[in-house]
Amino acid sequence: FSFDFVSRSVRHLLCAMAGAGSESEITDSQQQTQTAISQAEAEEEKKSPKEVGFYFWISRIRNIDLEHQVFEAEASLFLNWEMTAAEHAAYQVKEGSYYNDEFVPAWSPTFLWANATLETNKLMGYRAVKKGDMDYYGYVITEPRVPYLCEAYHKVSGQFTIRSHLKNFPMDSQDLVVTLEMGDPLEVAVFVPSLAKNFDVGKRTACDLTTKYSDLLPFEACA
Q1: What is the mean pLDDT of the chain?
Q2: Helices 2-17 and 23-47 sit at what angle, rounded to 10 degrees?
Q3: pTM for the model
Protein backbone atom coordinates (compact mmCIF):
# COMPACT_ATOMS: atom_id res chain seq x y z
CA PHE A 1 0.00 0.00 0.00
CA SER A 2 2.76 2.44 0.86
CA PHE A 3 4.39 1.82 -2.51
CA ASP A 4 1.14 2.56 -4.36
CA PHE A 5 0.93 5.85 -2.49
CA VAL A 6 4.49 6.81 -3.47
CA SER A 7 3.92 5.71 -7.08
CA ARG A 8 0.79 7.86 -7.42
CA SER A 9 2.51 10.84 -5.82
CA VAL A 10 5.36 10.66 -8.31
CA ARG A 11 2.93 10.53 -11.23
CA HIS A 12 1.02 13.52 -9.83
CA LEU A 13 4.32 15.40 -9.71
CA LEU A 14 4.88 14.52 -13.37
CA CYS A 15 1.48 15.98 -14.31
CA ALA A 16 2.25 19.18 -12.39
CA MET A 17 5.62 19.59 -14.09
CA ALA A 18 4.04 19.08 -17.51
CA GLY A 19 2.05 22.27 -17.00
CA ALA A 20 5.07 24.60 -16.92
CA GLY A 21 8.44 25.06 -18.60
CA SER A 22 9.65 24.48 -22.14
CA GLU A 23 8.93 21.34 -24.16
CA SER A 24 12.49 20.09 -23.69
CA GLU A 25 12.32 20.71 -19.95
CA ILE A 26 9.04 18.81 -19.75
CA THR A 27 10.49 15.90 -21.74
CA ASP A 28 13.56 15.74 -19.50
CA SER A 29 11.39 15.87 -16.41
CA GLN A 30 9.16 13.11 -17.75
CA GLN A 31 12.17 10.90 -18.43
CA GLN A 32 13.61 11.54 -14.98
CA THR A 33 10.29 10.86 -13.31
CA GLN A 34 9.73 7.66 -15.30
CA THR A 35 13.20 6.49 -14.28
CA ALA A 36 12.36 7.19 -10.63
CA ILE A 37 9.11 5.22 -10.99
CA SER A 38 10.92 2.26 -12.57
CA GLN A 39 13.55 2.25 -9.83
CA ALA A 40 10.89 2.41 -7.12
CA GLU A 41 8.97 -0.48 -8.70
CA ALA A 42 12.17 -2.53 -8.98
CA GLU A 43 12.97 -1.92 -5.31
CA GLU A 44 9.44 -2.89 -4.31
CA GLU A 45 9.71 -6.10 -6.32
CA LYS A 46 12.88 -7.00 -4.42
CA LYS A 47 11.09 -6.45 -1.10
CA SER A 48 8.09 -8.63 -1.96
CA PRO A 49 8.04 -11.97 -0.10
CA LYS A 50 8.48 -15.12 -2.14
CA GLU A 51 5.21 -16.95 -2.69
CA VAL A 52 5.30 -20.61 -1.69
CA GLY A 53 2.42 -22.53 -3.22
CA PHE A 54 1.07 -25.60 -1.42
CA TYR A 55 -1.11 -28.58 -2.22
CA PHE A 56 -1.94 -31.02 0.59
CA TRP A 57 -3.37 -34.45 -0.16
CA ILE A 58 -4.57 -36.55 2.79
CA SER A 59 -4.54 -40.17 1.69
CA ARG A 60 -5.78 -41.65 4.96
CA ILE A 61 -7.29 -40.63 8.31
CA ARG A 62 -7.62 -43.10 11.17
CA ASN A 63 -7.99 -43.38 14.93
CA ILE A 64 -10.06 -40.27 15.51
CA ASP A 65 -10.12 -39.91 19.29
CA LEU A 66 -12.35 -37.06 20.42
CA GLU A 67 -11.79 -37.83 24.11
CA HIS A 68 -8.01 -37.33 23.82
CA GLN A 69 -8.43 -34.79 21.00
CA VAL A 70 -6.14 -36.42 18.44
CA PHE A 71 -6.33 -38.17 15.08
CA GLU A 72 -3.80 -39.91 12.85
CA ALA A 73 -3.21 -39.18 9.17
CA GLU A 74 -1.03 -40.03 6.20
CA ALA A 75 -0.51 -37.27 3.66
CA SER A 76 1.55 -35.79 0.85
CA LEU A 77 2.61 -32.15 0.81
CA PHE A 78 3.67 -30.43 -2.41
CA LEU A 79 5.34 -27.03 -2.16
CA ASN A 80 6.36 -24.93 -5.16
CA TRP A 81 8.00 -21.56 -5.68
CA GLU A 82 9.49 -19.57 -8.54
CA MET A 83 12.93 -20.49 -9.86
CA THR A 84 15.00 -18.71 -12.50
CA ALA A 85 15.39 -19.91 -16.08
CA ALA A 86 19.06 -20.66 -15.34
CA GLU A 87 18.13 -22.79 -12.32
CA HIS A 88 15.52 -24.60 -14.38
CA ALA A 89 18.06 -25.33 -17.14
CA ALA A 90 20.56 -26.64 -14.58
CA TYR A 91 18.09 -29.15 -13.12
CA GLN A 92 18.94 -32.77 -13.92
CA VAL A 93 16.17 -35.38 -14.17
CA LYS A 94 17.07 -38.43 -12.09
CA GLU A 95 16.65 -41.65 -14.03
CA GLY A 96 13.86 -43.85 -12.72
CA SER A 97 12.53 -41.23 -10.32
CA TYR A 98 9.89 -38.52 -10.64
CA TYR A 99 11.75 -36.34 -8.12
CA ASN A 100 15.48 -35.78 -7.72
CA ASP A 101 16.56 -36.34 -4.09
CA GLU A 102 20.11 -35.20 -4.93
CA PHE A 103 19.15 -31.80 -6.35
CA VAL A 104 19.78 -28.82 -4.07
CA PRO A 105 17.75 -25.70 -5.00
CA ALA A 106 19.18 -22.21 -4.61
CA TRP A 107 16.47 -21.51 -2.01
CA SER A 108 13.83 -23.54 -0.21
CA PRO A 109 11.31 -22.58 2.48
CA THR A 110 11.48 -23.61 6.12
CA PHE A 111 8.27 -24.66 7.85
CA LEU A 112 6.96 -26.66 10.78
CA TRP A 113 3.99 -28.87 11.57
CA ALA A 114 2.56 -26.92 14.48
CA ASN A 115 0.03 -29.46 15.80
CA ALA A 116 1.69 -32.76 14.84
CA THR A 117 3.86 -35.50 16.27
CA LEU A 118 5.18 -37.11 13.11
CA GLU A 119 6.30 -40.70 12.66
CA THR A 120 7.31 -40.03 9.06
CA ASN A 121 8.48 -36.72 7.64
CA LYS A 122 10.44 -37.43 4.49
CA LEU A 123 11.50 -35.08 1.71
CA MET A 124 11.17 -37.21 -1.42
CA GLY A 125 13.06 -34.72 -3.57
CA TYR A 126 12.69 -31.72 -5.88
CA ARG A 127 11.84 -31.23 -9.51
CA ALA A 128 11.74 -28.36 -12.00
CA VAL A 129 8.31 -27.58 -13.45
CA LYS A 130 7.09 -25.47 -16.36
CA LYS A 131 3.96 -25.07 -18.48
CA GLY A 132 3.03 -28.29 -20.26
CA ASP A 133 4.60 -30.62 -17.68
CA MET A 134 2.48 -33.14 -15.81
CA ASP A 135 1.91 -32.94 -12.10
CA TYR A 136 2.43 -35.92 -9.79
CA TYR A 137 -1.09 -37.20 -10.49
CA GLY A 138 -0.86 -37.01 -14.28
CA TYR A 139 -2.68 -33.73 -14.91
CA VAL A 140 -1.09 -31.33 -17.41
CA ILE A 141 -0.03 -28.01 -15.89
CA THR A 142 -1.71 -25.59 -18.28
CA GLU A 143 -1.55 -22.21 -16.53
CA PRO A 144 1.27 -21.92 -13.96
CA ARG A 145 1.42 -18.50 -12.34
CA VAL A 146 5.16 -18.14 -13.09
CA PRO A 147 7.28 -19.49 -15.99
CA TYR A 148 9.51 -21.82 -13.93
CA LEU A 149 8.82 -23.58 -10.65
CA CYS A 150 10.80 -25.60 -8.17
CA GLU A 151 8.60 -28.21 -6.51
CA ALA A 152 9.28 -30.15 -3.32
CA TYR A 153 7.46 -33.35 -2.36
CA HIS A 154 7.11 -34.37 1.30
CA LYS A 155 5.49 -37.55 2.68
CA VAL A 156 4.24 -37.37 6.25
CA SER A 157 2.35 -39.51 8.75
CA GLY A 158 1.68 -39.13 12.41
CA GLN A 159 -0.69 -37.86 15.08
CA PHE A 160 -2.35 -34.45 14.98
CA THR A 161 -3.95 -32.63 17.90
CA ILE A 162 -7.38 -30.99 17.65
CA ARG A 163 -9.84 -29.23 19.92
CA SER A 164 -13.04 -31.25 20.29
CA HIS A 165 -16.40 -29.51 20.55
CA LEU A 166 -18.90 -31.93 22.07
CA LYS A 167 -21.57 -29.53 23.29
CA ASN A 168 -24.01 -30.70 20.58
CA PHE A 169 -23.14 -34.41 20.84
CA PRO A 170 -24.30 -36.64 19.17
CA MET A 171 -25.12 -34.07 16.46
CA ASP A 172 -21.73 -32.42 16.75
CA SER A 173 -19.36 -31.31 13.99
CA GLN A 174 -15.59 -31.59 14.40
CA ASP A 175 -12.75 -29.92 12.51
CA LEU A 176 -9.74 -32.15 11.88
CA VAL A 177 -7.09 -29.47 11.57
CA VAL A 178 -3.54 -29.69 10.19
CA THR A 179 -1.51 -26.58 10.94
CA LEU A 180 1.50 -25.78 8.76
CA GLU A 181 3.49 -22.70 9.77
CA MET A 182 6.00 -20.84 7.64
CA GLY A 183 9.37 -20.78 9.37
CA ASP A 184 10.73 -17.88 7.31
CA PRO A 185 9.84 -14.30 8.31
CA LEU A 186 6.76 -12.77 6.66
CA GLU A 187 8.90 -10.45 4.56
CA VAL A 188 10.80 -13.46 3.15
CA ALA A 189 8.08 -15.97 2.24
CA VAL A 190 4.32 -16.55 2.49
CA PHE A 191 2.07 -19.53 1.81
CA VAL A 192 -0.40 -19.30 -1.11
CA PRO A 193 -2.42 -21.94 -3.02
CA SER A 194 -0.26 -23.95 -5.43
CA LEU A 195 1.37 -21.90 -8.17
CA ALA A 196 1.10 -24.87 -10.56
CA LYS A 197 -2.21 -26.43 -9.54
CA ASN A 198 -4.97 -26.84 -12.09
CA PHE A 199 -7.88 -25.73 -9.94
CA ASP A 200 -10.34 -26.14 -12.83
CA VAL A 201 -9.86 -29.93 -12.93
CA GLY A 202 -12.92 -31.48 -11.30
CA LYS A 203 -13.35 -30.31 -7.72
CA ARG A 204 -9.67 -30.25 -6.79
CA THR A 205 -8.66 -27.61 -4.29
CA ALA A 206 -5.55 -26.72 -2.28
CA CYS A 207 -6.37 -29.64 0.05
CA ASP A 208 -7.91 -32.98 -0.91
CA LEU A 209 -9.01 -35.95 1.19
CA THR A 210 -9.35 -39.55 0.01
CA THR A 211 -12.15 -41.08 2.05
CA LYS A 212 -11.86 -44.60 0.59
CA TYR A 213 -9.00 -45.63 2.88
CA SER A 214 -9.99 -43.46 5.85
CA ASP A 215 -11.60 -44.79 9.02
CA LEU A 216 -14.35 -42.17 9.14
CA LEU A 217 -17.25 -44.35 10.24
CA PRO A 218 -19.37 -43.55 12.20
CA PHE A 219 -18.48 -40.03 11.10
CA GLU A 220 -19.84 -38.26 8.03
CA ALA A 221 -16.94 -36.54 6.23
CA CYS A 222 -17.37 -33.03 4.87
CA ALA A 223 -14.31 -31.91 2.85
Answers
A1: 77
A2: 170
A3: 0.73
